[in-house]
Every structure is written in C-alpha cells, then in structure tokens.
Known about the structure:
By secondary structure, this protein is α+β, with helices and mostly antiparallel strands.
Amino acid sequence: MNQGVHTIDVLQYLMGPVESVYAHCETLGHERIEVEDAAVATLRFRNGAIGTLVATTCAYPGLTARIEIFGQDGSAVIDGDELVFRKLKSEKGEEDLNEKPNISMNTRGATTAGDPGAVEGTGHIKQMNDMIEAIEENREPVINGEEGYKPLEIILAIYESARTGSSVTLSQQVTVTN
C-alpha cells in the first residue's frame, strides 16, 4: 500500500473506476517485516477494459513505476512519472507522436522502491498547503476525500482478494460534481 498507492491512483484516474480485482500478495524478499513486498492483481474496469498490476519492493536496485496503456486506436507508456511513449491512430492512418514524448508529470528524484528514504516531499507539501488554504478559504481542497478513497478502495480490495483467494467487486465509486 505504501509504495503502490500513487501509481494505482494515476491508473484509476486514467482508466476510470475499477469494477473488480483478483490478487495475490506475499512477503518474498524481506525478512522481519509485517507487510507484503510483492503484489500481483488483475483488474476489470467498469468500462470493460482489463489490466494487470505488479508491485514490489524486491526489485533490485529499485525501478521506476510504469503504466502502460494499450488500445486498438493508440498506446501510451508512462515511466518514472514521464510520458515516454505515445502513438495514436488517426483517421488518415497512423500518427506518430513520439518526436518529443518526454512530458514530466513530476520532478521526483530517486525511486523509493529501492530506497524508501529517497522520498521527496514536493508533491506532499503542495497537497498539504492546498489543504491548509482550503480550510482558511472555506473551500473544497483540490484532492478531496472522495478522490483519496478511490485508490484506497482498490488496495483494500486487492488485500481482500489475496486473503480470500476470490475475486472482489468494488462498491460503486461516487463521482462528485459541482
């Protein structure tokens, strides 16, 4: 949960709500810890898409998070918070958008998979400052409780599936509109 929550959040943001998960979680590479260090899950999204999730803190020396989205009309790869590949099929045929694909989504430094102490707090600081300003200005924060619950619900379903050995259906995630 600690290392994978942000990637799961981005995945569900890009792909939409998750309908169900089937997962395995194990402690395979670290002794004397009370949590899993490897998780594998299949995800069925409400839009009909399927996906896989592989998360581990056992990969030496620690690798970047990677999201790959493949479809019949295009594909994209985000690696280490950067869009490194994108290709779309246009009405005229194939449109290659790879000339300058490196679009940074974050300025994070070293990966925390191999070095948990490498956490850079830039994103967290921005989020905490927004929360303080939201309280002071009596407004909704940019990332509200409903948005924070979405990846948490997926992770809890992954844990439940791993515990029971069964597929777990998620509750209907509520989308709040103003």
